[in-house]
Design a protein that fits this description.
There is one protein chain. The protein is mostly helical and about 80 residues long. The protein is globular, with a radius of gyration of 18 Å. It has one domain: Recoverin, domain 1, CATH 1.10.238. It contains 4 helices and no strands. It has helices at about 5-25, 40-45, 55-60, 70-75.
């Protein structure tokens, strides 16, 4: 590959790699690893590692120890989660 082509494609490739790496955090939901239909604190921390117990308690509006799809959507709507 000619050097001039490498100089033009390398920044583009780097930008694409960065954009693809950010996609999971932008649109992903946590994985329901235990299959209970909601997300416990450990499952939520797969995407938001700094999520504390107090913040989780606020997001878990009904206090059942797991965040369901409605609670997750509500938390995002008010800016508690990206």
């Amino acid at each position: 590959m000619p050097r001039s082509l490498c100089r033009r494609t390398t920044p583009l490739a780097a930008a694409c790699a960065l954009a693809l790496a950010a996609l999971p955090a932008l649109a992903a939901d946590p994985q329901d690893r235990n299959g209970d239909g909601g997300f416990n604190l450990a499952e939520m921390r797969t995407l938001w590692p700094d999520l504390g117990e107090d913040a989780f308690a606020v997001i878990d509006a009904n206090g059942d120890g797991r965040v369901d799809a409605e609670e997750l959507a509500a938390a995002r709507a008010v800016g508690l989660l990206p």
